[in-house]
Design goal:
Number of helices: 13
Strand order of the largest sheet: 3-2-1-4-5-7-6
CATH architecture of the largest domain: 3-Layer(aba) Sandwich
Shape: elongated
Number of domains: 2
CATH superfamily of the largest domain: Vaccinia Virus protein VP39
Structural class: alpha/beta
Strand content: 15-25%
Helix content: 40-55%
Oligomer: single chain
Distance between the termini: 33 Å
Radius of gyration: 23 Å
Order of helices and strands: HHHHHHHHEHEHEEHEHHEE
């Protein structure tokens, strides 16, 4: 966890340019909606005063320029207001996972909102992990002797509670910002480790390192081929008789289909953000687990999710 904290000081080096500034401007206007109106009023007052005083052309051009700038800010504010919570980040490709989630986690509040789906107070945020934790307890039976790995842990929303139920809990993420806030949240836990993933896969871990690997509220944000890579890697790092847990939003369920249609209509004529969930089905996940070598594969429907679990054969 100390490594995570140290790397936060250099995370800006890999970012760049106008595109990042544009995303930050969008977030600023979401937080301070008074800025566009104030800028517009001031620029109008400046232009009117300049014309009334019959000043020279340079002053009049300054007034016109300030009004144009205010109009630009106003347009940005309207875009930010339509998107409500999260910046569009359309300058990033979907597989730029680290950059995408670092942008979404530029503050503790925004990191928690991205992890929980919307802004919540602290107690509501903790409670929001209850469903995922219960699914894990019910379906893969987290044990006090288990060494557990969460892939895509975010701010440690689930790990904070789950770590109390197992021998050790390791949380991974590509976003150093997310891991920084997870480090703060999990500071009091002695059996916790946080590891940044440098690329798709679990190359930071040795073979047969864990008893349970789980992916919750994570695979839906990945490219399909990367989902497959993680399934293979999970098989490698699991010990014999180790268990795997994967969930996605189920496009075959009524709730999942309703969410899919809503997003399809909303983004019909818009660029789709790189973090936008991709819906899936049990068939896809079962295929990955079978091809990776898992046995005892089971499908569990907990709308809007479908959960697939499996076991690595003993030996």
């Amino acid at each position: 966890m100390t490594t995570v904290a140290a790397e936060l000081s250099v995370r800006e080096k890999s970012r760049g340019g106008w595109a990042v500034a544009r995303s930050r401007a969008s977030r600023l206007l979401q937080r301070h909606s008074w800025i566009p109106l104030t800028a517009t009023l001031l620029s109008c007052a400046c232009l009117v005063a300049t014309l009334a005083a019959n000043l020279n052309l340079a002053y009049e051009l300054t007034g016109v320029t300030s009004l144009a700038l205010a109009a630009f800010i106003w347009g940005y504010w309207r875009q930010a207001a339509r998107r409500r919570l999260f910046p569009p980040l359309i300058h990033l490709h979907r597989r730029q996972y680290a950059a995408t989630w670092d942008e979404l986690a530029s503050s503790r509040e925004e990191a928690c909102a991205a992890a929980g789906g919307r802004k919540k107070d602290e107690q509501e945020f903790r409670d929001s992990a209850g469903g995922a934790i219960q699914n894990l307890l019910d379906l893969v039976h987290v044990r006090p002797s288990d060494e557990v790995l969460e892939v895509g842990c975010g701010v440690g929303r689930i790990g904070e509670a789950l770590a109390r139920r197992c021998a050790s809990w390791t949380g991974t993420d590509m976003s150093i910002n997310m891991l920084g806030y997870a480090s703060e949240r999990l500071r009091g836990s002695s059996n916790v480790r946080l590891v940044q993933l440098r690329r798709v896969g679990l190359f930071e871990f040795d073979n047969r390192s864990f008893d349970l690997v789980y992916f919750t509220n994570m695979l839906m944000h990945l490219d399909e081929m990367d989902r497959w890579h993680y399934a293979k890697e999970a098989f490698r790092v699991l010990r014999p008789d180790g268990r795997i847990f994967m969930d996605v939003i189920d496009i075959e369920s009524e709730a999942g289909w309703s969410m899919f249609v809503h997003d399809a209509d909303r983004y019909r004529n818009l660029e789709r953000p790189p973090y936008m969930p991709r819906f899936s089905s049990a068939t896809e996940l079962v295929t990955y687990l079978q091809r990776a070598g898992f046995e005892s594969i089971q499908i569990h429907h907990r709308s809007p999710l479908v959960i697939v679990t499996g076991r690595k054969a003993g030996g």
